[in-house]
Design a protein that fits this description.
Layout (H helix, E strand, L loop, with lengths): L13 H23 L10 H9 L11 H11 L22 H13 L10 H17 L8 E5 L2 H21 L3 H4 L8 E6 L5 H8 L7 E4 L9 H13 L3 E8 L11 H10 L3 E6 L23 E5 L11 E5 L18 H5 L18 H35 L4 E3 L7 E6 L7 H18 L5 E5 L2 E7 L7 H22 L2 H7 L3
Parallel strand pairs: 2-3, 2-4, 4-5, 5-6
Antiparallel strand pairs: 1-7, 6-7, 8-9, 9-11, 10-11
Helix pairs in contact: 1-3, 4-12, 5-12, 6-8, 12-14, 13-14
Length: 508
């Protein structure tokens, strides 16, 4: 071994092992002091302040910095000003506190640095990912034999894969056209994907990236609970066909980003089958309900999907990134598979050597399966389900708290654990004023570091949002944040006095 660089890596030398032990210990101390023990979900620092700290030192100095000094700097400049996802008042996005077991696994998998593209770079890791994927397929009601899947970077990648396979399957089955070889078929500009108007934007992004254009995505209105309307779906399919278009895929959402709404999966599955469309379910958010004895029924029909998106860095409490794409019939992976002599030569396929690269649109890929595996092993299904169930109850109680304030409006009864609401000013004749007020409330909470909550738009109006993924958040926490919202709203109203003042003061 070249001893010159030995200390820079973990290896057989006792010195490198001792350094590793000490560095890990020091990093843990920084995380506990500057992150875990934070009494606010954000320091409140402004963007310019944070940028200035990094500008004070070169990104790549000529000579290295000692680890102690480096960790002290990173603790001050990065860790202290992170969004504290573990804090009970960090309730903005689908952004979870990671489980202890998953943090341990993240350290292990980063140290092992296995690459999931070929078996000779990830022997045991490949076999474990295959095992976890098999379990996931069964969890969502797929037949274990015949189904398959892969870990992905998250919902964006999984949705992309769903639309990609749907497109290529349609071209092959309709026209014996091989998109992989021949590119887009001549009929490509008539291909259409259907989803609800509340579906994630990545459906449109996927269509655009796949050469179909965003025009290929036709959205269907939702009902008062935010679910795709089957009657309007049917009439939309009818209209598209009459216009000469080719609806080839239906994307349902099990857990929309804002309201957590779940489309009527059995009905949509039946319509997709009747019209020869690929049925993809985006369960990035709601997929975790499959673990819950109490709520799994909300996913009824998901087993009928041709493909499924599920994210683990949302309601499965995994560190980013961690998701999966599941496929009911593994034969459909043929639209993706390519053989590279250096990675997955055809002889390997014949000899049964499992190179996972053929199932993914990534080549080098992380061993994220270990995080989910260790979390499931450590916690067990019951405990996982109890946490998920708790957060759904918490959302219902937050909705109740919102209803009890005269100046707050609840936009919809929560289905999962997202709660959308708004502050309603006394003089609401001008919507722009109410919108401005809601944005300012959210900004004030962030600037003071009191709470990190989200903003969104519903029914054309600016709204506030809690995404209550964190099982550490209590009813008292949500009540306290709502009290702040009401108070800041009242102060802003009082300060600006009237809409006239508001126009002059706020909009200038
Ligand atoms: C319903 C839904 N699908 C897909 C995505 C994209 O997932 P990711 O951010 O993991 O790529 C999100 C993200 O919030 C989502 O809410």
């Amino acid at each position: 071994m070249n001893r010159e660089f030995a200390a820079a890596f973990l290896n057989t030398t006792p010195e490198s092992q001792e350094l590793f032990r000490n560095h890990m210990h020091a990093a843990v101390e920084v995380l506990i002091r500057d992150f875990a023990a934070a009494d606010q979900p954000y320091s409140g620092a402004a963007p310019q302040e944070l940028a200035a700290a990094f500008r004070s030192r070169p990104v790549c100095p000529e000579q290295g910095t000692g680890m102690e000094e480096l960790l002290a700097f990173v603790g001050e400049a990065v860790v202290k000003h992170a969004a504290v996802v573990n804090h009970p008042a960090c309730v903005a996005h689908l952004h979870c506190p990671p489980l202890q077991a998953s943090l341990l696994a993240e350290t292990l998998l980063a140290t092992l640095n296995q690459s999931m593209d070929s078996w000779d770079q990830s022997m045991s890791a490949t076999m474990l990912e295959e095992e976890v994927i098999g379990w996931l397929c069964e969890l969502f009601g797929y037949e274990k034999s015949g189904s398959d899947g892969v870990f992905t970077s998250g919902g964006t990648q999984s949705n992309f894969m769903g639309v990609l396979l749907a497109r290529d399957h349609y071209a092959y089955s309709q026209w014996n056209w091989n998109v992989q070889q021949q590119g887009l078929p001549p009929q490509a500009d008539r291909l259409r994907v259907l989803c609800s108007e509340a579906a994630h934007f990545t459906v449109k992004q996927s269509a655009a990236l796949l050469g179909l254009g965003q025009q290929a995505v036709v959205t269907v209105p939702v009902d008062t609970l935010g679910r795709m309307r089957c009657d309007l779906l049917e009439s939309t399919i009818e209209r598209l066909r009459q216009e000469g278009n080719l609806p080839f895929a239906l994307v349902a959402t099990a857990g929309t980003t804002d309201f957590g709404s779940i489309d009527p999966l059995p009905e949509l599955a039946a319509l997709a089958r009747e019209h020869g469309m690929w049925f993809h379910v985006d369960a990035a958010y709601g997929g975790a309900l499959a673990l819950s004895g109490k709520h799994a029924h909300l996913l009824e029909g998901i087993s009928l999907a041709d493909s499924i998106t599920v994210d683990f860095h949302k309601l499965f409490y995994q560190p980013i990134s961690c998701g999966a794409f599941l496929l009911r019939d593994s034969v459909n992976y043929r639209y993706l598979r390519l053989n590279a002599d250096y990675l997955n030569p055809q002889e390997d396929d014949q000899n049964g050597v499992p190179n996972l690269v053929g199932k993914s649109i990534q080549t080098t890929r992380r061993f994220d399966a270990l995080k989910l595996y260790m979390s499931l092993q450590h916690l067990g299904r019951e405990r996982f389900a109890a946490m998920i169930d708790y957060t759904l109850e918490l959302a219902l109680s937050a909705a109740e708290q919102i209803r009890s304030h005269d100046t707050l409006e609840l936009l919809a009864e929560p289905t999962l654990n997202a709660v959308v609401f708004r502050y309603v000013p006394a003089t609401e004749s001008e919507t722009a004023w109410a919108d401005e007020l809601n944005h300012r409330i959210r900004d004030r909470l962030l600037e003071s570091g009191t709470a990190v909550i989200a903003r969104t738009k519903a029914n054309g109006k600016a709204c506030l949002k809690f995404t209550l993924l964190n099982p550490l958040t209590t009813k008292q926490d949500t009540a306290a944040i709502l009290q702040h919202v009401v108070q800041i709203g009242a102060e802003l109203e009082q300060h600006y006095g009237s809409e006239q003042h508001a126009r002059e003061g706020v909009y200038s």
